[in-house]
Amino acid sequence: MSAELPPPYTALTKHPMLARTNHDESARFNFLTHLNRYLSGTLGPGNKLAYEKRVLPAFRAEHGRDPEHRYEIRDWMNQDPFHRMWSALKRNSMEMRQQNGRSTVLRQLDELDAQARQFNEHSGQLELDSKIEQPIYQTAVDIHCQPGGYHGEERPGDVSAGANYDVGIFATTGGALGGLNDGGGQAVVGWITKARPEWQPRRILDVGCTVGHNAVPIAAAYPDAEVIAIDTAGPRCAMARRARRGWGSRISSSSRPAARTCRAIPMAISTGCRPPCSCTSSRPNRCRACWPSATACSPPAA
Ligand SMILES: C[S@@+](CC[C@H](N)C(=O)[O-])C[C@H]1O[C@@H](n2cnc3c(N)ncnc32)[C@H](O)[C@@H]1O
Questions:
Q1: Using CA atoms, how far apart are residues 47 and 160, in angstroms rounded to an integer?
Q2: Which of 89, 102, 136, 219 has the most CB atoms around it within 10 Å of its CB?
């Protein structure tokens, strides 16, 4: 039973740019870490049961066939009482996570902004493009209930969105990514070193890097490579530099969209982001072929 419990929120590794949580803020995140683990680990499989036992038989009875795409499944699942309850709990836990993260960050935003400025100014490792156009899927809805979405700002150039992401992702994922929240980057490295041991990239692109947590294990695995971490959401990139141990001079971050950047980089990696939606305009065939599971893209042939 204890193996199913998540690590406590205090297992989150601190770094200089991580917003500080007081007792109550930590306790709320601790509760949310457990709640999220319970919702995905214990209650989550109930959705499969709901589908197999109720939704699919009802769909077949009405249509005389199986669902053809996920939208049909979604419409029908949204009528199932268990799935509705589970979805409401998920939504509620995300709203609570955002509320706790934002209030934590906003009370110390001046300090965080000053620290980010100190880290970034004259570093040559951060490039922000204020004219960058956010893709429509970023602006159509506040993703993960983040007010203002991934790219939102409380005031021009602040790091509130990135700092909020950073302080709460441990709770959102039920602690599943580890104390450094870099489980995605570690998984990518694990897969590449096993499946593609011959790859020795000179330049690596981390697409949709947010605060750069996954760029660090990737850079560590390829000590001779330059790592470029990009994200359309500038406030995330501004959080990345030197925010964590291991962020050496080989890693830079930039507010650039994937479509403009992928072409030039030998190895492109993405965790928790769907490259095809952003890359199709520049390298349609390459991305569809190389990113079936949105993990890693092989070096271009020429
Ligand atoms: C779910 S987060 C993934 C974050 C991180 N890779 C992780 O594993 O935790 C998706 C990130 O992709 C970024 N993003 C979405 N579309 C993008 C694009 N076309 N180019 C660059 N970044 C993009 C978003 O701003 C967001 O920060």
A1: 34
A2: 219
Contact 165, 273 (CB under 8 A): no
For atom 1 of ligand 1, the residue with the nearest CA is 272
Tell me how far the alpha carbon of residue 234 lies from the centroid of ligand 1, in angstroms: 11
Q: pLDDT averaged over consecutive 10-residue blocks of the chain (302 residues)? A: 77 91 97 96 97 98 97 97 98 98 97 88 79 88 93 90 95 94 93 92 88 89 90 75 64 70 64 50 31 36 32
Helix 109-120 with 160-172: angle, nearest 10 deg: 110
Half-sphere exposure at residue 205, Cβ-oriented, CA atoms within 13 angstroms? 25
For residue 169, the ligand 1 atom closest to its alpha carbon is: 9
Ligand 1 pocket, Cβ-based, cut-off 6 angstroms? 135, 138, 150, 184, 207-210, 214, 230-233, 236, 257-258, 271-273, 278
- Kindly list the structural domains of the chain, giving each domain's residue range(s) and its CATH number in brackets, ordered by start: 2-172 (no CATH), 183-297 (3.40.50.150)
Amino acid at 178: G
Q: Residue type at 27?
A: A
